[in-house]
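User: I'm writing a tutorial on reading structure tokens. Could you give me a worked example: one chain, its sequence, then its tokens, then a sentence or two explaining what the tokens reveal?
Assistant: Sure. Here is the example chain.
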Amino acid sequence: MLVKRYHANDMQQAMDTVIKELGSDAVILNSRKMRKKGFKNLFRKPILEVMVAYDPANVPAVKKLNLSQSAQYYGMQPPKEQESIAVLTPPLASSTVSSEQLERLDGRIDSIDSMLNEFIEKFSFVKRDITYDYVEEVQELLQRMIENQVREELAHSLAKETENMLRNQPDSSASEILEHLILERFGKPAPILHKKFTQKVILVMGPTGVGKTTTIVKLAADFAVKQKKKIGIINTDTFRIGAQEQLQTYADIMGIPLQVVYQSDELEGAMEAMSDRDVVFVDTAGKRPGDEQHKEDILDIVRILKPEDILLCLAATTGFSALKEMVDTYGFVEDYRLLITKLDETKYRGILLNLSWYTQKPIAYVTTGQNVPDDIEVVDVEAVTKQIIKE
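And here are its predicted structure tokens:
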């Protein structure tokens, strides 16, 4: 796995460039606004710098040559101003290897093996289907889906099904059939509903950096302001710096009680303090994949609080391979709904279909900005479907 730094004017341009240069599986690790050095740049608009992790095996073949040559990069600094940092294990300084080093090495080998198997699987699929001869209308729809970042295996499956149905229903158009098939894949949106005279506990989980805390605030504000519900928040994310302060600030503004829980044996007391609340949101910490303690913490919360609804937050700007790993990490939770954040930071809507297809879970909400409580909405699957197959 390699890490690369890019410069662009905005997030959309950065996303377009990353996908074009490194493929759709590249993962944006972080971003920041910065100014170029020098007095003449003091009053110029700042540029966006993003750090991207990518698998060299997934880089388009024509771009692999460009990465090692002096080609000009669309929307970025020339190659001489960019950095590539290999995230690989350096040679050991001595012949003595500790158990900790061996564990880290085993983890890297497993990661490389996983990426290699995924590449082989993807290549085998494309090789089998690359010669499949679709009718012109279906071929155009297939290309639109792939351009919108729908996974190739899913796009081909939908294209084949569309063509088969088109033969039996010649009076229908391929776009109408495909739209119907995609809507079937999505299923109905699944927003959270509250019944009167009952208390609902909603657990929000997901990896670090997807915007769980801001999303909880948006949902809390929506239920409190628009639906006139009495809201409470329990925060179990005591690991991330500033998480508690951020929640406390919003809670004070909205007049919502906030309970902070450091250990699982404090959960029942926190819920007792929320006995008069209609809806209680539970914020959780985000940890790296494979963290067994995090898994146990989540299971403790589920066992003690028995939440009626669980939301898994994932960012639309994350590459599909990383999303798969995140989804698999939370596989120990059987029943949940998807909440996709940062949809405003990418123009591609195929990621929503990919997640719905891979998880077989309904999508509840999408977030489209930082404004509270406005930038959250129930996913409009019909609009998303039209965007996926539009010209």
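What the tokens reveal: Residues 64-96, 124-131 have pLDDT under 50 and may be disordered. The CA atoms of residues 221 and 227 lie 9 Å apart.
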